[in-house]
């Protein structure tokens, strides 16, 4: 299902959606599958599946270390696409490829989009690629039915936010604060002002990420954005408390939608 239809449909039965994150190959492909099973069990709404990269510039310490370890474990691009394909066939939530432009550059834009479509992805997020540098990625992704998810940041001018909003598809990823993923984000007036600036720049749904980590965070964002995006907190929970702790946090996050 297209994100343009899926997101409004899901919002008919909940006040906000939850999008979660998996780094392929960390701590292992087998662990990734357990994570995805738990996400399906909890009923998450969307999932980012990240292809590791050696220089993940948008990722904080937790994710940067996970990227390095996944690559050290020998994760290959074909294994990534196989995990994506297998997961998209097994689980009901839309999958978004998250990664860095190196992957699209290495494959070539045409093959990159073709592989994503063949693997069942709904779209992709390339945080290190400014929309001005997309070139034919916009046309090729449209031909394949893929949504290029663009990022809006607090440092963007209103004019730039508007230009990003004009090119984005599916939804817009609003970055909750300056810097990288992982650090705690305080949900307060300055952030809400930024959300309003994003809202004025696009008619698309807004997803908010970077620093969210609890069901209460999700609950506080009801009525402000359409999607709460949680990544580092889940990986930290897996590393500290294992499968059951991970399950509990997923359940808490999804309870925050009601």
Describe the 3D structure.
There is one protein chain. This protein has a single domain, classed as Aldolase class I (TIM Barrel). Helices cover 49% and strands 14% of the residues. It contains eleven helices and nine strands. A nine-stranded parallel β-sheet has the order 5-4-3-2-1-9-8-7-6. Helix 2 links the parallel strand 1 and strand 2. Helix 2 runs parallel beside helix 11, helix 5 packs across helix 6 and helix 8 crosses helix 9. The longest helix is centred in the C-terminal third of the chain and has 24 residues.
Radius of gyration: 17 Å
Determine the CATH superfamily. Aldolase class I
Instruction: Just name the CATH architecture.
Output: Alpha-Beta Barrel
In CATH, the topology is named: TIM Barrel
Mean pLDDT: 91
- Roughly how many Å apart are the termini? 23 Å
Please give the largest β-sheet. Answer: 9 strands, parallel
- Output the helix-strand order: HEHEHHEHHEHEEHEHEHEH
Count of the domains: 1
The residue ranges in which pLDDT falls below 50 over 5 or more consecutive positions are 179-185
Class per helix and strand makeup: alpha/beta
Shape: globular
The strand order across the widest sheet is: 5-4-3-2-1-9-8-7-6
What is the multimeric organization of the chains shown?
single chain
Helix content: 40-55%
* Share of residues in strands: 5-15%
Helical element count? 11
Beta-strand segment tally: 9
Instruction: Please report the first level of CATH classification, the CATH class.
Output: Alpha Beta
